[in-house]
Amino acid sequence: MFSSAAILGSTGSIGVNTLDVLEKLNIPIKALAAGKNVRAMELQVRRFKPVIAAMADEASAAELKSLVSDTETRVLAGKEGVLEAASCEAEICVNAIVGFAGLLPTIAAIGHSKRIALANKETLVCAGDI
Fold first, then answer.
1. Are 33 and 97 in contact (CB under 8 A)?
2. Each residue of 45-94: pLDDT tens digit?
3. Is the confidence at residue 103, as pLDDT, over 90?
4. Is 12 helix (H, G, I), strand (E, B) or coil?
5. Burial (CB count within 10 angstroms: exposed 0-12, middle 13-18, buried 19+), residue 69
6. Are the CB atoms for 96 and 121 separated by under 8 Å?
7. DSSP state, residue 129
8. How far is residue 83's CA from residue 63's CA, in Å, rounded to a whole number?
């Protein structure tokens, strides 16, 4: 078992189901990352109280930051924000980001000695010889 998690792609179906399982197991969520679904991310921030919430889309991050300004969650934006979420203090990083976009966050998590749980094949295919 592990003590904490970061969920990349948290607003998609895999991310939502992963969060439900982790909640039932009482495993704290340290970071969440998503693309543009601000409303779903706001609900997740309020429910799971992560340290970091990252939105790949910068306009969405600005909107989320305003919506959750009453929380202690730090909202990050863009690719750099997602990479920071992948590199946070969590023991495991669940990567449910679709397509090529999941590659760099996976590499960032590996670089910070995280256990990786891949929920997409594209990251493996895109990584090639890496």
1. yes
2. 999 999 999 999 999 999 999 999 999 999 999 999 999 999 999 999 99
3. no
4. coil
5. exposed
6. no
7. T
8. 20
